Amino acid sequence: MAERSKTAETGSDIGIDEIITGNLNKFTAVPPGYFGQPKKGHLIFDACFESGNLGRVDYITEFEYDLFIRPDTCNPRFRVWFNFTVENVKESQVSAI
């Protein structure tokens, strides 16, 4: 059963699979409330290329991110692979994903 969530704008009840509809395109994950240019270590995720399937990234801490992988094209019940890039990593930065 799909996880359920409410949208902030409308308050309507939607499933998690409905939220993840496209690939991320150079998405910078920054701490909540941070404004300005990304600093070194603010990871930039990209999946806007053929076979990319990263739909959403949630910033948890400087070293932890929740990644939401889009379902496989031929079978939406499965997520058996992932393909995306990460940029702007600090030297020796280790992150849990």
UniProtKB/TrEMBL annotation:
Residues 46-94 form the Cytosolic carboxypeptidase N-terminal domain. This is Cytosolic carboxypeptidase N-terminal domain-containing protein. InterPro entries: Cytosolic_carboxypeptidase, Pepdidase_M14_N. Pfam families: Pepdidase_M14_N (PF18027). It comes from Podarcis lilfordi. Its cofactor is Zn(2+). Keywords: Carboxypeptidase, Hydrolase, Protease. The keyword ATP-binding does not apply. GO terms for molecular function: carboxypeptidase activity.
